[in-house]
Write a structure and sequence with these properties.
This protein is globular. A hairpin with a 2-residue loop joins strand 9 and strand 10. Helix 4 (112-123) crosses helix 5, helix 4 (112-123) packs parallel to helix 6 (158-170) and helix 5 (128-141) crosses helix 6 (158-170). The strands form 2 sheets. It has an 8-stranded mixed beta sheet, with helices on both faces. It has a 4-stranded antiparallel beta sheet with strand order 2-1-4-5. The model has no long low-confidence stretch (mean pLDDT 92). With 328 residues, it is α/β, with parallel strands linked by helices. It has helices at residues 55-62, 85-92, 102-105, 112-123, 128-141, 158-170, 188-205, 216-222, 240-245, 250-257, 298-302; strands spanning 4-19, 24-40, 44-48, 70-75, 78-79, 95-98, 176-180, 208-212, 225-230, 233-239, 308-311, 314-316. It binds adenosine-5'-triphosphate (ATP) and magnesium ion (MG).
């Protein structure tokens, strides 16, 4: 482990809402609304949170598949937020994404060999023989026989397809892989095989991961640190043991209380949150969670809490943990 591989500062993505014949912009979906975090070299950062809280959008922003509305993305200290054209292409190989549904993300009309070779061909600089050799090597690395290279995606099981997706992601020696629900569509027994493969590959190739999942048990298994998102915000970020054993943010506490594996943690009693998740097109003022928080105070309705370190390596955005102002 070393310093920060990735540093994200106040990142935002607002999607315009268009309406009417003239397609006028009538508002914005605040999918990611000012989040900051780091990924340390060699770590797996897990990201959890309910559907629609902005996990995938955050992943796509970091991958530069999508432009940010505001904020900064530093990769090994270099600001990549506004890179485009050749400059963006030259750093593209440093990060790759592995998706939930390998069938949808793999082109069904091209063979496994072509799927894995594609990023190598686009990058250029290798002979056909070198590419063929690299494809065989990558298939081996992900636990597939090189002889499968002439087959097509539909001839494989879900787990095997995910191995092909991982081989393709590894083709250009990335430093960071964003895995977005990478095992969510797989059977539980296959899930653990793919998770174990990811752990092995991380060691072997010095990778770092952002591992996005709504499954708290899976994230607990694979992560070093875990970030919790709610309505486009990062509300808590801590080492895995701290987060699961000593959650601080009322949302994290509620989320863990609803998950069966929480029984092994600190949260014993199930907390049912009142109301619905508000719309990211119209998020509440102040703390985005105040409308559902059992501890909401006056200040929570007015002032957005800062995301700050309140214990060693434990960040939280919550007024309950703000230092009390001194009375004079
Ligand atoms: N291209 C887009 N245009 C408009 N709104 C979008 C777009 N992509 C995502 N959104 C909206 O942004 C919000 C966050 O979506 P996102 O897919 O990032 O959430 P998520 O946490 O990945 O959810 P899930 O767990 O269901 O995958 C949602 O309200 C979603 O509808
Ligand atoms: Mg998603």
């Amino acid at each position: 482990m070393g310093g920060n591989l990735l540093e994200v500062n106040n990142l935002k993505k607002y999607f315009p809402i268009k309406s009417g014949f003239l397609q006028k912009t009538v508002g914005h979906v605040k999918a990611v609304d000012g989040i900051s975090f780091t990924v340390r070299a060699g770590e797996t950062l897990g990201i959890v949170g309910e559907s629609g809280c902005g996990k995938s959008t955050m992943g796509r922003l970091v991958m530069r598949i999508m432009d940010a509305t505001d904020g900064q993305i530093l990769m090994e200290g270099q600001d990549i937020t506004k890179l485009s054209g050749d400059k963006l292409r030259s750093i593209r190989s440093d990060f790759q994404m592995v998706f939930q549904d390998p069938y949808a993300s793999l082109n069904p009309k091209i063979s496994v060999e072509e799927i894995i070779a594609e990023p190598l061909i686009v990058k250029g600089g290798l002979t056909r023989a070198q590419i063929a050799e690299r494809v065989s090597y990558l298939l081996n690395v992900v636990g597939l026989r090189p002889s499968v290279k002439n087959r097509y995606p539909h001839e494989f099981s879900g787990g095997q397809r995910q191995r092909i997706g991982i081989a393709r992601a590894l083709a250009l020696n990335p430093k960071l892989i964003v895995a977005d629900e990478a095992v969510s569509a797989l059977d539980v027994s296959i899930q653990s095989q793919i998770l174990n493969l990811l752990v092995e590959l991380k060691k072997e190739f010095n990778l770092s991961y952002i591992f996005i999942s709504h499954n708290l048990a899976v994230v607990r298994h694979i992560s070093d640190r875990v970030g919790v998102m709610y309505l486009g915000n990062m509300v808590e970020l801590a080492g895995k043991v701290d987060l699961y054993q000593k959650p601080l943010h009322p949302y994290t506490v509620a989320l863990l209380s609803a998950a069966p594996e929480a029984k092994r943690g600190a949260v014993k009693e199930r907390i049912i949150l009142e109301g619905e998740v508000p719309s990211p097109a119209n998020p509440p003022k102040g703390c985005a969670f105040h409308t559902r928080c059992p501890h909401a105070m006056d200040i929570c309705r007015e002032v957005r809490p800062q995301f700050r370190e309140v214990a060693e390596d434990h960040l939280v955005a919550c007024h309950l943990y703000e230092p009390q102002p001194l009375h004079s």
